[in-house]
Design a protein that fits this description.
Blueprint: H1 2-12, H2 15-27, H3 34-46, H4 51-63, H5 68-73, H6 79-92, H7 112-115, H8 120-127, H9 130-138, E1 145-146, H10 147-170, H11 173-188, H12 199-210, H13 225-242, E2 244-245, E3 259-260, E4 262-269, E5 272-279, H14 281-290, H15 335-342, H16 345-359, E6 362-365, H17 367-378, H18 391-404, H19 410-443, E7 449-450, E8 453-455, E9 461-463, H20 474-478, E10 480-482, E11 486-487, H21 492-504, H22 512-521, H23 523-531, H24 546-560, E12 569-570, H25 581-589, H26 593-598, H27 610-627, H28 631-635, H29 642-652, H30 658-670, H31 680-698, H32 700-718, E13 724-726, E14 732-734, E15 741-745, E16 752-756, H33 766-791
Antiparallel strand pairs: 1-5, 2-3, 4-5, 6-7, 6-10, 8-9, 11-12, 13-14, 15-16
């Protein structure tokens, strides 16, 4: 009791009251304990006590058999109290240093290694790998996951964690922060260069001045897919054997029973028997009932809330710690890394600078458009606006349609039910994809963020965050704005109006002057859409790109209502696309004037639309067949439109086959409400043949170049070499297609056969080399043009 009162008075600095309590102890023949003396020293540390008084206190403490070190070894005091006690002691003993921890000792051999903490360091390190393992378990679907897929996912999680921990051990935080802080000052000036330095060059200059470990920018060891799967497989086996649920969750079980969390089962996919890891239904119930309404993402799949680190080499850039490659590729492909290592650094400078300029562009969320999308998403969705409905509502709608349909045979009913289930699964996938995008957008709605970029193996640039970025679909583009605005200038508003008309798809073959006049003509609809997107005329909903049209309408409304539209600060991004880029490159390579005119490579008062031209050619052929009595041609009367053939025309030059083209046309025909569903397959097969035929007639020069590239790749691969080339910007490209090789991974649960198409020990896959070369080569040219646009 006395020591508690003394501690209370010590915090108040009441030394006289503590002295009075010491007198009471003496009167009652009680000896002060160590806590009493510490209370005195605590009080003396808070007030200006003379050193001689502190010395007398310490002498009395030691005469009673206590030591100062014994207090610090077993202290349970708060940090502030310990600090005051130490301050008082060091006034009279300046060299005094407390020993806060005494090493535990034991005479029992069994616990000797435990007390010596032989494995303490490694256990602390391994603790960081527990969370990725449990994240994999908690994300398991109720029906389970294929062992191979799960092992690869878990192995990849462990590798990512290992990479982050390894880098964090080598980085000098102070030096790196100095470099990064100085680098950000360059970006704040909003210039591509400062004192003649590009971002990459400026970072290297700062790094040389500050100096941080070169190991941070050195090449990281890449684990092959077989190793990742073996590691994941071992951890899965361990979790299947050790993870248990408490028996009390099932009262019917005896107390000695254990409930495994995970089960290893087999299921058939076709004729193949596949191993699955399935969670216990109790685990699923626990997770569902205890789950929070939050989504968890790895940091490197989200936009960055600070500018990315510039790419300075093929091994370092974008993120500081998270693993990311300059050139993304399939797991197990090492050819690209080898080529980049051999490539002189000055050959990569243009590519690195282009990636840095793209990644340094700050973005923000267009909140008004986001609010409209979320309101529709939370209601029942809208397929016309590409907002998928909730799964429950979709299932009820399909059941209603099935009930209202005419009686059908058992086989027809079975087929219809299979189609309904397929559509339900597809709708659920689309719904979850949009949920991810909207959740990220809502989370970032008040932030400025950046998208770090890297390359695919053809040299095309892509944002590293996969779910939410400016290369997404219509609604994703509609909810993104530049964080840095610019004045519209004298003609900026006119260009916004022209862009709006382009997005509607209503005046594609008209001149710019006519499109501008049309925008002024429909200005009332534009303003109504901006002011009342869900309660007005809803004109924007019937356009080709409704969400971008809505965003542009809101921007135009703000501009026209500003005092001076030319001075209005606009943040609106105008997404521009080429007129079938692939055909543009083929026309340029072959100096094809007719083809160049069709894809707007030559000056013209009116824009040309190659998709409409192909649709007209296909329609002409369809009419001829219909007159000859071809039934499917007659069914397609009035359904051959630009939209139906556009995707196939666009992708033919990138190597799409008739099979892939048929699927594209089938998807477009399914979206037409009045088109008979039973004729979709036959109609898509018929149309894709006409599209290929029309393109061969219209772009004969392009076909000749494509055939030459195909034959060249065939001859190269026949010699045992893969096809390689260098882009105009100096980026080396290689096609990593080889014959398959199987690898056996043995385990206690089962054995796994892995197949790799990228093993350099195998011969090149001739068929894939020749078929892939034309589209890959054109993609590499297209990427070079895009990078030059970013640089200049």
């Amino acid at each position: 009791m006395f020591s508690l009162l003394m501690c209370h008075y010590a915090k108040q600095g009441a030394l006289k009251k503590i002295g009075w309590l010491f007198c009471m102890l003496e009167e009652n023949d009680l000896k002060p304990n160590l806590d009493c003396y510490m209370a005195v020293l605590n009080c003396m540390g808070r007030i200006k006590t003379e050193p001689r008084i502190i010395s007398r206190c310490i002498e009395q403490l030691e005469s009673d058999g206590f030591s100062l070190q014994s207090f610090f070894k077993d202290s349970t005091y708060e940090d502030n109290e310990v600090k005051m006690i130490l301050a008082a002691i060091q006034r009279v003993k300046p060299d005094f240093q407390p020993e806060f921890f005494s090493p535990p000792t034991t005479t029992i051999p069994l616990l000797d290694k435990f007390y010596k903490k032989v494995k303490f360091e490694s256990l602390c390190y391994l603790r960081g790998f527990i969370l990725p393992s449990f994240q994999t378990v908690f994300s398991l679907p109720a029906l389970g996951e294929c062992v191979t897929v799960l092992a690869k996912e878990l192995g990849t999680r462990i590798y990512n964690k290992y990479t982050i921990l390894r880098k964090s051990c080598t980085i000098s935080e102070v030096n790196f922060e100095k470099t990064y802080d100085s680098y950000v000052q360059l970006l704040a000036r909003n210039n591509k260069q400062v004192n003649g330095f590009l971002p990459r060059e400026y970072w290297e200059k700062l790094r040389a001045e500050v100096g941080y470990s070169p190991s941070l920018i050195s090449k990281q060891a890449v684990w092959p897919p077989s190793l990742l799967i073996q590691l994941g497989f071992q951890l899965i086996e361990l979790m299947v054997q050790t993870l248990k649920l408490d028996h009390s969750l099932l009262p019917s079980l005896p107390e000695t029973s254990v409930i495994p969390v995970l089960y290893h089962v087999y299921s058939f996919r076709g004729t193949k028997q596949i191993g699955f890891i399935k969670p216990h239904y109790l685990l699923i119930r626990i997770l569902q009932e205890a789950s929070e309404t939050t989504l968890t993402f790895d940091s490197f799949v989200l936009p960055m809330q600070c500018p990315p680190v510039p790419w300075v080499s093929s091994h370092f850039g974008a993120y500081t710690l998270s693993p990311v490659k300059l050139m993304r590729c399939q797991d197990g492909v090492i050819q690209h890394d080898l080529l980049l290592d051999e490539c002189p650094h000055d050959h990569l400078c243009l590519v690195l600078d282009a990636l840095n300029f793209l990644g340094n562009c700050p973005w923000k969320v267009n909140q008004p458009v986001l609010d409209v999308i979320i309101s529709i998403f939370n209601d029942k969705g809208d397929e016309k606006l590409d907002v998928p409905p909730p799964p429950s509502w979709e299932a009820k709608e399909l059941a209603r349609q099935l009930a209202e349909s005419a009686p059908m045979s058992r086989m027809a009913l079975k087929w219809r039910m299979a189609q309904c289930r397929k559509k339900t699964r597809e709708t659920y996938g689309l719904r979850m994809d949009m949920l991810y995008k909207l959740s990220i957008a809502k989370h970032m709605k008040d932030e400025v963020f950046w998208f770090p970029h890297n390359l695919d193996f053809r040299g095309r640039t892509y944002p590293c965050p996969p779910h939410f970025n400016h290369l997404g679909g219509d609604f994703t583009r509609g909810i993104l704005l530049f964080a840095e605005g610019k004045p519209l200038g004298p003609r900026g508003l006119d260009w916004l109006k022209i862009h709006l008309v382009n997005l509607t798809g209503l005046r594609k073959k008209h001149s710019l002057k006519e499109r501008l006049a049309y925008a002024d003509q429909i200005m009332a609809d534009i303003l109504d859409s901006a002011d009342n997107p869900l309660t007005g005329k809803r004109w924007w909903m019937d356009t080709d790109e409704p969400w971008q049209v809505l965003a542009c309408s809101m921007e135009i409304a703000k501009a026209v209502r500003s005092p001076d539209p030319s001075k209005y600060i606009s943040h609106f991004p105008v997404h521009q696309d080429g007129s079938c880029n692939g055909l543009q490159h083929y026309a340029a390579l072959g100096r094809d004037m007719l083809g160049a005119f069709s894809v707007n490579l030559t000056p013209s008062a009116l824009p040309q639309d190659v998709y409409t031209s192909v649709a007209q050619q296909v329609e002409l052929s369809r009419k001829n067949d219909a007159e000859k009595g071809v039934k499917i041609a007659q069914v397609l009367d009035g359904y051959v439109t630009r939209k139906v053939v556009k995707q196939t025309v666009m992708t033919v030059v990138y190597g799409v086959t008739q099979y892939g083209g048929r699927l594209q046309i089938e998807k477009q025909l399914k979206e037409i409400e009045n088109f008979p569903k039973e004729d979709v397959w036959q109609a898509s097969k018929y149309l894709v043949q006409l599209v290929f035929q029309s393109l061969s007639e219209m772009f004969s020069g392009s076909r000749e170049i494509q055939n030459w590239l195909t034959e060249s790749a065939w001859l190269i691969s026949k010699t045992g070499q893969t096809v390689e080339w260098v882009t105009p910007l100096g980026l080396p490209i290689i096609q990593p297609y080889h014959n398959k090789k199987s690898i056996l991974v043995k385990g206690d649960l089962q054995s796994i056969y892995l197949q790799s198409n990228y093993n350099v020990d195998q011969k090149p896959n001739t068929r894939k080399q020749k078929n892939a070369f034309p589209p890959n080569f054109i993609h590499s040219l297209d990427s070079s043009h895009m990078m030059l646009t970013a640089l200049y």
